[in-house]
Amino acid sequence: MNRALSIRSNRNRSGSQNKRASGGGGSAFSFSSLRGNIQPELSRKLYRLIKAENNLISAHEAAGRERISIATQLSEWGEHTGDDAISDISDKVGVVLSEMGELEDGYAHDLDDSRAMLKAIRNTERSVQPSRDNKNKIADEIQRLKVKEPQSTKIVVLEQELVRAEAENLVAEAQLTNITRQKLRDAYEAEFTATIERAEKQILLAKHGRRLLQLLDDNPVVPGDLRAEYPHAQQARQILNDAEDDLRDWQPQHDEFGFAAPQEQQPVSRVSTGEQPTKDVKGKGKMVDNDENMSMARTDSRTEGGSPLRGDDRTVEGSVGQGETTL
Amino acid sequence: MNRALSIRSNRNRSGSQNKRASGGGGSAFSFSSLRGNIQPELSRKLYRLIKAENNLISAHEAAGRERISIATQLSEWGEHTGDDAISDISDKVGVVLSEMGELEDGYAHDLDDSRAMLKAIRNTERSVQPSRDNKNKIADEIQRLKVKEPQSTKIVVLEQELVRAEAENLVAEAQLTNITRQKLRDAYEAEFTATIERAEKQILLAKHGRRLLQLLDDNPVVPGDLRAEYPHAQQARQILNDAEDDLRDWQPQHDEFGFAAPQEQQPVSRVSTGEQPTKDVKGKGKMVDNDENMSMARTDSRTEGGSPLRGDDRTVEGSVGQGETTL
C-alpha cells in the first residue's frame, strides 16, 4: 500500500473551508446534483455512497456475465479447431471460467446485501434530520423573541417545547449512533466475508484450471508431422470432478478476525494462532490405478459419498487443513 | 458446479446444422456483424472472443474505479458523522477498500496481457487462411480442367503449383498448431495466475479489514449517555501497517499446478504434497507493549527492516507458512 495511512489526507491538506464548500453541494448545477440535494444534509453523503455501490455491483455483474460468455466462446472455438486436445482442454477450461463467472455474479449479490445494510443507516440519518431541525428552530425562535419581545409569554411555552424537542432528539441521536455503528460493522463484515469467499473459491478453480492446462502438450511439431493422439480426456474430466468436489466442500473459515465484542487490546493480541485462509486444492495423490474407482468417480451425477475417492480426499484434507474449524 | 462437465453440451443437443448456421453469421444484419464478417472464417470465433475479453477487462476496471471512489466516500462520510470511532474506522476501512480496488484494476491489466496472447493465435489463424484457400483453389481448378479440358497443358503446371502450395500450407498448419497450443496455455496460465494473485491479496486485505471492524464498539447506548472515548486509534493504525507488510511480502506460491512439460499420468499424480494457497495474515501475537516499537512501526515511510516488528513477523510467518517455497 503505497499510500498514506488515511485516505482522507489529501483533502485535509487543502483546508477545512474548502471541504465545507464541497460538502454543501458546491458543484455546478445539474439534474443529478439537484436530485442529490433533495436528500437532507445528514444523509446526503451516504446516499451518494449507496448509489456508487450500485455501480460497483453492476460492474461485478458485468464481469460475471462476460466471463461466462467468454467461457462458451472458448469452448466453441476449441471445437472448431478440429484438434482433439485443444477441443477438450478449451471446453474444460471453459467450464472452470464459467464457474468463476458465476462466483463473480454471486459476489455482486452479496455486495447488494451489504448495500442494504448501509441503506438502514441512511434511512435513520434521514429520519433524524427533522428532529435536529425542529430542536434548532425552537431554540432560534426563543433567541429571536428574547431580543425582540423579552416580555412575551410565548417564550415560556417555547422553552417547554424545547425541552420536549431536546428529549425527542436525544432518543433520535442515540438511535442514530446505535444503528450506524451496528450496520456499518455488519455491512463491511458482510462485504469482507463475501470477498474472502469469492477469492477462496476462485483460487480453487484457478488451480484446477492450471492443472487442465498442463494436460495440453505444447511441444512444437515440425511441418508434416501429426500430433500424437490426445491421451488425457479421462484426467481432464477427473480434474473437473475434483474442482466440483472442492467447491461443494468449501466452508467459510471461522478465523479469529470474525466478529466478537471488541475489548481493549484483545482484537490485535488474540489473533495469535495459525489458520489457513484457503483450503488446499484437492486431487493430490488422488490418481488411482483402479479403473473401477475411476469410472465411478467420472459419473457426472454421483451421489454424496458414492465415490471411493471421497473418503480419501477427506483424509488428505484433514491432515493439511490444520486450521479448519469443525462446525 | 451444478452444470454438465462440458460447457458445450447444451448446443450439441440442438444439432450440428444449427451450429453451422450461427457460425456462418446467421444473425440479423447489423454494422457490428458486418465488421465481424471481414475476419476470415478461421479467425472469426477468436476475434469475437477477444472482443468479449475487452468487455471483461472494462468491467473489472470499472469495479476497481468504483471501489476506490466508494472508499473515499466512506471515509468522508465517517468524518462527517462527528463520531471519532466511526471516523477512524471508516477512514481505515476506506484505505483497505481502496487497495482492493487497486488490485481489481491490476487484475484488469493482467487480463489484458492474457488477451494479447490470444491475439497471437488469432493473427496466426488469419494468416493461415489464405494458404488454405490457395491450396484449395488450385486443387479445384485442376479438378475443373480435368473434366472440361483433360488434355490441357495447364494441368501439369497447376499440379506443380499445388505441390508447392501444399508444402507451404503444411508449414502454415504446423505454425498454427504450435502457436495455438503454446499461446493458449500461456494466455490462460497468465489469467489463472492473475486470478490467484488478486484473490490471495484481497483475502489478506479483507482479513485485516475485519480486524478493523472489530475495533468499532457497537454496543447500544441509551439516550443521553455519551459514547466512551475511542481508544483504538493506535491499534487501527497498526492493522494498516500489518496489511501493508503482508502485501509487500506477498509472493506467488510455486504450486505444483504450475507449468511443467506434461507427461502422461504425471500431472495429476504428482500433486501430492501439501502446500498453502495463500499466506497467513500477519499481525498474530504482534501487539507489543513497547511504546517505542509501536511508534516506530507507525511512521508511514519507514524503511525496509527499520521496524523491530519486522524481524518478529518473519519468525511468525516462517513457522506458519509451511508450504512457502523459498526463491
Automatic annotation (TrEMBL), chains A, B:
Biological process annotations from GO: eisosome assembly; endocytosis
One annotated Gene Ontology cellular component of this protein: plasma membrane
Residues covered by region (Disordered): 1-30, 260-327
Coiled-coil residues: 155-182
UniProt keyword terms in alphabetical order: Coiled coil, Phosphoprotein
Phosphoprotein is among the record's keywords: yes
Polar residues composition-biased segments: 7-20, 263-276
A GO term, aspect molecular function: lipid binding
Residue spans of biased composition, Basic and acidic residues class: 277-289
Protein name: Sphingolipid long chain base-responsive protein LSP1
Native source organism of the sequence: Sodiomyces alkalinus (strain CBS 110278 / VKM F-3762 / F11)
